[in-house]
Amino acid sequence: MTDVVLRARDLVKVYSIRSTRQTLKAVAGVSLDLHRGETLGIVGESGCGKSTLARLLVRLESPTSGTVSLDGEDITRLDGSKLRDVRRSIQMVFQDPYSSLNPRQTIGRTLEEVIEVHRLREPRERPSRIAELLEMVGLRPQFASRYPHQLSGGQRQRVGIARALAVEPQVLILDEPVSALDVSVRSGIMNLLGHLRDELSVSYVFISHDLGMVRHISDRIAVMYLGRVVEAGPWEPVSDRPLHPYTRALQEAVPVADPDLEATIDASGVAGEVPDPADPPPGCPFHPRCPLAEDLCREELPPLLRLVDDQFAACHVAARQLGSMSAAGET
Amino acid sequence: MTSPVLSVRDLTTVLHLSGGPADVVRGVSFDVWAGETVALVGESGCGKSMTMLSVMGLHPQPTAEIVEGRVVFDGVDLLQLPEEKRRLIRGADLAMVYQDPMTSLNPLMRVGDQIGEVLISHGHSRQEARERALEVLEQVGIPQPARAVAAYPHEFSGGMRQRVVIAIALALRPRVLIADEPTTALDVTIQQQIIDLVGELQTDLGMAVVWITHDLGVVARVAGRMLVMYGGHIVESGLTREVFRHPEHPYTAGLLAAVPPVRGKERPQLVQIPGTPPDPAHQPSGCPFHPRCPHATARCAVEMPPGTRRSGQGEGTQTAACWVPPSEWVA
């Protein structure tokens, strides 16, 4: 028996762009393990493939190649009722709950529908289950009779979470769940997510462009760039002592809400922009923007290697430097 | 003693909506000094954008109406000027950059012509306009400016488009640049590039920048001074490092405690501010923050505190609109 609840191996998703007859590798070979009760943070900027990865993990889309398995069972090619069973186990929470809630349906009806579809409760038990779900996410039972437009952004996101939890999933995929919220409301949702994870022992994949939020909630963090994981490991070293130059650039670029600390940060920044995923550079995808790039980086894709303890990075320069360090340590 | 370049007094703007009037800007006063960066911070609906649109005279009329106040630029009250004179000051002395560059660019017009249009409307010749367009595009770091002048906005990336918008704003060498969430739609590494760019241009041109943002990290990174807005009022102001070190208004204190730390092993439970920011059409009585404030007294519900309480701490740069000093806050 393994404690890995969700496993992805070599996931690739290729889209073809009709107008230009190009192909675009949105996800270019991602492998990851999500352990039971764990929060895996995935951080990256636009176009890095994190949202596509989320859709592959919940099977909203099928990968071009690679596999996804749940509790050791390959779910990559399931369809019909088998796929519906999988959906019960893996639920998704979206950035904008407004667009994912039916505006003509009360909150109660929205939740009831999910319970109905998955035949989870006897009809007479449903109202109490709805009240229970609302309470779980910090909303009064009276919210069941309200419509989405009568709710604030934070309340709508709570409903989005309640709907995902209605089927008692093992895994929640949270795609930018707090990005649309005001600062004062965001912290409430972050606290709620932390609390629910501990209470229900559900596992999270927390996807965000915001390194601050990812490091706050995650046990482990994977950093994505142009369809690949370029760094991964426990939250604290990855966010505070990154090995990959891209993670370092990301960390320095995030402004810190602390003027004293800000004064000590050398935010020299990183030049250039993310390359077109339909026309990625050869070698390491980050090399055109990387201050450390050398000839090898322009030619050869660096593999994701374990460099320090449980910290992995896909960087030729870091691999050489840290490799030589441990070699020196052995003598 | 020099005088501020921009001085706003008792600015009050009302939105005439179908459901009745909404008090969006409620007696706002502040100064902007030559060459400084001051941040205007607040959450959605707090009135920060409408304040600066009113200063610019770009508030959507007749829906929005300035019912009171003075906007003194260079000793002249802009609100008393005829629109024609105000238009000349706008762009030439006061310029504004918005969050979404696409909304301020004409998609059907070449970038060079859009920069030129601003110059020609302020009395420059076509020849001068062409030369200056090239010059500012180069100044904002657009690669191959000679080619860029002939390109359309959609041919640029989001970050490059924001550079174009900044180029237009800078064409006439304004003395005050109002930047309304100019980096919110951008990735953090691109945000850092824009922050660096504005900083460099500011040093070169000696212009003042009013940076509107909801992001306290951005405030700490760019602004020497900050103004915190809530419910249409400036509730706190002062040197950024002073305000961060010892906030004098419970709302500022709550905002700061809602942001997770970005370094170190500690991951404290985030402080939540209960409730949501007020709807401008239904502002609470008294202090707009009192329904969410843990320290509110009976007086807070009926009487708006003046924004003049001075801090006894630090360098004494802070003012706060609060009846309850921090020494009396409940633990």
Summarize the structure.
The complex is a heterodimer of chains A (331) and B (331). Chain A is α/β, with parallel strands linked by helices.
Task: Please explain how this structure is put together.
The complex is a heterodimer of chains A (331) and B (331). Chain A has a single domain (4-330), classed as P-loop containing nucleotide triphosphate hydrolases (Rossmann fold). Chain A contains twelve helices and twelve strands. Chain A is an alpha/beta fold. Chain B has helices spanning 48-56, 83-92, 101-104, 111-121, 126-139, 145-148, 158-170, 188-205, 216-222, 240-245, 250-257; strands at residues 6-17, 20-32, 37-41, 64-73, 76-77, 94-97, 176-180, 208-213, 225-230, 233-239, 309-310, 319-320. Chain B has two domains: 6-223, Rossmann fold (3-Layer(aba) Sandwich); 230-262 and 278-328, no CATH class. In chain B, a hairpin with a 2-residue loop joins strand 1 (6-17) and strand 2 (20-32). Chain B is 31% helix and 22% strand. The mean pLDDT of chain B is 92. With 331 residues, chain B is an alpha/beta fold. Classes of the chains: A alpha/beta (331), B alpha/beta (331). The A-B interface holds A 45-46, 152-155, 182-188, 190-191, 194, 209, 211-213, 215-216, 236, 239-240, 249-250, 252-262, 267, 269-271, 273-274 and B 43-44, 157, 159-160, 187-193, 195-196, 214-222, 240-241, 244-245, 254-256, 258-260, 262-265, 267, 269-273, 276-277, 292.
How are the SSEs placed, and which strands pair?
The complex is a heterodimer of chains A (331) and B (331).
Chain A: E1 4-17, E2 22-35, E3 39-43, H1 50-57, E4 65-70, E5 73-74, H2 80-89, E6 90-93, H3 107-117, H4 126-136, H5 153-165, E7 171-175, H6 183-200, E8 203-208, H7 211-217, E9 220-225, E10 228-234, H8 235-240, H9 245-253, H10 259-262, H11 295-299, E11 305-308, E12 311-313, H12 316-330
Parallel strand pairs in A: 3-8, 3-9, 6-7, 7-8
Antiparallel strand pairs in A: 1-2, 1-4, 4-5, 9-10, 10-12, 11-12
Helix pairs in contact in A: 3-4, 5-6
Chain B: E1 6-17, E2 20-32, E3 37-41, H1 48-56, E4 64-73, E5 76-77, H2 83-92, E6 94-97, H3 101-104, H4 111-121, H5 126-139, H6 145-148, H7 158-170, E7 176-180, H8 188-205, E8 208-213, H9 216-222, E9 225-230, E10 233-239, H10 240-245, H11 250-257, E11 309-310, E12 319-320
Parallel strand pairs in B: 3-8, 3-9, 6-7, 7-8
Antiparallel strand pairs in B: 1-2, 1-4, 4-5, 9-10, 10-12, 11-12
